[in-house]
Amino acid sequence: ETADRVDRLEVPLRAAAAAYYGLLALFPLLLFLISLGSVLLSRVEARSALDEFLIRAIPAPEALEFVQQTVTQTLANRGSIGVISLLVLLWSASTLFANLEASLNVIWDVPRRMVWHRRLLGILAVMVLAGLFILTIALSTLQAIPLPEGTSLLEDLDLWITIVVATLFFWLIYRWLPNAKVPALPTLAGGALAGVAWVAAQAAFRWYLTSGLSNLGAVYGTLTSLIGLILWAFVTGLILYVGAVFSAVLQQRYWK
User: Fold this and answer.
1) Closest by alpha carbon to 250, among 178, 162, 187, 165?
2) Are 153 and 147 in contact (CB under 8 A)?
3) What is the pTM of this model?
């Protein structure tokens, strides 16, 4: 039933749209996270935490380098970010989640919210993502704690940390963005499915790009890093919506 609904709702097209809005919102979101992190840490420490966050999120090495370089250049050009600029970044970053809400409402077969309500939810979603960013900072700090055996505290748990954070992210999206009363359990199941699938897709995507099977460089040349980022954004959108469909099917079948 999940596969049939994925086909009927044209999930790949929705994933492509999510990738488009995601790329538009990416750099405002990253600049907002750095600005927020700078409240808790120094600018250098906040940037280091952001790099750690990006390493967990972007498996394509060239795409990762492209994003990091763009953030560096943008920060150098902008200098310090004031309160007004911070609010503009927050508003721009919320566009992604406001548009995700539209597709999730289609998946749950419910009407859209009013415009101001959608935008408010988008802003709240950005703040939740900022909370996950702060969680990443905390986990990175714990990783520096040595154990008697000479390994860091969370070195062996790094994969599980990524899965848990990804699952939490997808679960929160499924739980609160649709304009419906969505139970916690089916969305948690969908979030877990999406979280595990996303981490597995990371490993597969990274292997594909480094195995020599990919010829993106020969086809796209200097655009390889951007194409890699677009492809990964599409894969992430696809996983997000498949997990949402799975959650909606579970809810309608067992939580009527």
Assistant:
1) 187
2) yes
3) 0.88
